[in-house]
Structure formats: C-alpha cells, structure tokens
Design brief:
CATH superfamily of the domain at 127-183: Head domain of nucleotide exchange factor GrpE
Shape: rod-shaped
GO molecular function: adenyl-nucleotide exchange factor activity; protein homodimerization activity; protein-folding chaperone binding; unfolded protein binding
Keywords: Chaperone, Cytoplasm, Stress response
Structural class: alpha+beta
Distance between the termini: 126 Å
Family: Belongs to the GrpE family.
Pfam family, one: GrpE
Number of strands: 6
Strand content: 15-25%
Strand order of the largest sheet: 1-4-5
CATH architecture of the domain at 127-183: Roll
Largest sheet: 3 strands, antiparallel
Radius of gyration: 44 Å
Helix content: 55-70%
CATH topology of the domain at 127-183: Nucleotide Exchange Factor Grpe, Chain A, domain 2
CATH class of the domain at 127-183: Mainly Beta
Biased composition (Low complexity): 18-32
Number of helices: 3
Mean pLDDT: 86
C-alpha cells in the first residue's frame, strides 16, 4: 500500500471509531428524545379522547332534549285527538243549555248547566280553550266563515256570530269556530 492510502485509512478509522463518553451521551440524548416524543404523543391522545368525550356528551344531551320534545309533541297530539272526540258531547250540552225552559224543565236545565260548567272546567285543566270569536277580526287559522252578512254593529271582516264553537288545545286549533263574518 502506498503511504497516501495508509493515511486515508487512519483518518477514516478516527472518524468512524467513537469514544466511550460520546456513545453514552448519544444514548442518553436518544432516550430523552424518545421520552419527550412519547409524552407529546400521549398529550395528543389525551386531547383527542377529551374532545371525543365532550362531543359524545353534547350529542347525548341533544338526543335527550330532542326525545323529550318529541314526547311532549306526541302527548299534545294524543290529547288533542281525545279532546276532539269529546267535542260533539260539548256541542250537545251547548244546544241543551241554549233551549228555553220553564217549571220542572228549568230545574233539569239548571242541572245540565252545572254539568256543562264542571266538564268545561275539567277540560280546561287539560288545555282545552274556547276560541273567542264574536267581535274579533276574522282569522282563517281559528275561524271558518260560513257566510258573509251586512252589519251596522261590527266593522268589515269582523266575526259577528258564532254558529259552532271552536276550540284550541294548548294553543293549537283542533276545531275552528264556524262563524258569520261582516261584509
């Protein structure tokens, strides 16, 4: 071998041959970097799990709220259907109360009036309300116009007479009032 090649081999050996102190420092640095990297990964995982947990909790709260709203809405529709079935009975009571009576029939009519009042009080506890129509402006959401009549007493497009009582349940119209409307 030539002298130049020997020098080259010595230089290469010095560069590639590590010392004992350098190896321990490198291993310590690598271990510290690995611990720091693992800590960062754990923090990211923790943040991800916290985020998922909070989203899941919010989704569950929204689900409970929606379910309760749907239950209340369904109960309102069922209540409206049941009360709707009672409306013909109320109509018959109103017709009976509207008839004039004397003597023994007057006593019988007074009993009918008391029963009608008790029934209306009980139904109003459950959300049934009579639509007040006479003297009110015509509203197609609550009134069903049967005819238009001239009147000096009321303004135009005002309800002047109720032919059949209308009802609402918890603010929702279950039967519009049949009315006469001023021209």
């Amino acid at each position: 071998m030539s002298e130049e090649q020997i020098k080259q081999d010595v230089v290469n050996e010095e560069v590639t041959e590590p010392t004992e102190g350098t190896t321990e420092q490198t291993e310590t640095q690598n271990a510290e970097e690995a611990v720091v990297d693992a800590g960062q990964v754990l923090e990211e995982l923790k943040a991800d799990f916290d985020n998922r947990y909070k989203r899941l909790q919010a989704d569950f709260e929204n689900f409970k709220r929606r379910t309760n709203q749907e239950k209340e809405q369904l109960a309102g529709f069922v209540k409206g259907d049941v009360l709707m079935d009672l409306l013909p009975v109320l109509d018959n009571f109103e017709r009976a109360v509207a008839t004039p009576a004397e003597g023994d029939a007057k006593v019988f009519l007074d009993g009918f009036i008391m029963i009608h009042q008790n029934l209306m009080a009980m139904l109003s506890k459950h959300g049934l309300a009579v639509i007040d129509a006479v003297g009110q402006p015509f509203d197609p959401n609550f009134h069903q116009a049967i005819m238009r009549v001239p009147s000096d007493e009321f303004e135009s497009d005002t309800v002047c007479e109720v032919l059949q009582t209308g009802y609402t349940v918890d603010g929702r119209c279950i039967r519009p009032a049949m009315v006469k409307v001023v021209e």
